[in-house]
# Entry
Amino acid sequence: MAEQDQVPPAAVTDQNLCPTCDDRMRADLHLVAERWEEAQAALHPSRGGDSERHAQRTEAPLPLNVSVSDALMIVRDNIWSVALRLVDDHPGLSLPADQTTPSLAEWLARWQMLKIAGAEDKGFTRQAYWWVAEAADQIASKTYGTETTAEIPNQFCKRPGCKGKLFVAERSDGVRTVRCAEDAHHAVQWDTWSKMLKASRPQRRGARPPRLGRV
# Structure
C-alpha cells in the first residue's frame, strides 16, 4: 500500500486522526507558516521575501532558483487545496482576510483542525494529511531553519573577486555548510571544505569546526 493511501489511525470514533497524527499535522502547518519567508528569500537571495513571487515565475527577475520556485508552488497548491475544500464542505465558512500561504497554514492549524480531523469524508482527512505533510517536506528541504553559526578565523572566500569572510553554519539536522558572509551562493559542505583545507596544508591535521553559537 502506498504511503499516501494509508489512513492515519483514529483515536476516537468521531475523529479520523489519532492524537499523534493530529499533532504532526499541526506542526507541519506551523512549519510552513514559519519557514515561508525564508524560502521566499531563497528565490532571489539579493531580495527580500515579500509577496508570493513563485506564482509569477516568468515576471520575476533573473536569476531564479527554479527548485525553490517549484517547491513553493507545491506548498501553495497543497495548502490552498485543503482550505478551499473546507470552504466547499462548510457553508458559511470563509477564508481569512489575509490569504497568503503562511496565513492560510496558520488559519488551518489554529482554527480548522477539528473540521479536518472530523470530516464526514475520511478520504478528505487522509488527503489533507498527506497534502500538508508534502508541503512541510518541500519547504523544509529548501530552508535552513534555526542555525548555529561561527566565523572561521583567518579564512576568506576563494571565489574570483570575492574576499568575504567564511563562517560555518550548522542546521538542526546536523548538516554543516561553509558559507561566505558576502554571498550565500558561495557555499560548500563542511566535509568537502575540510578535505580541501587539509589537502592544501598537508603538514596539518584536518580542520575542526569552530565552536558554534546560536543566532
Notes: Helices lie at 19-43, 66-89, 101-111, 113-117, 122-141, 190-200. The two ends are 43 Å apart (CA to CA).
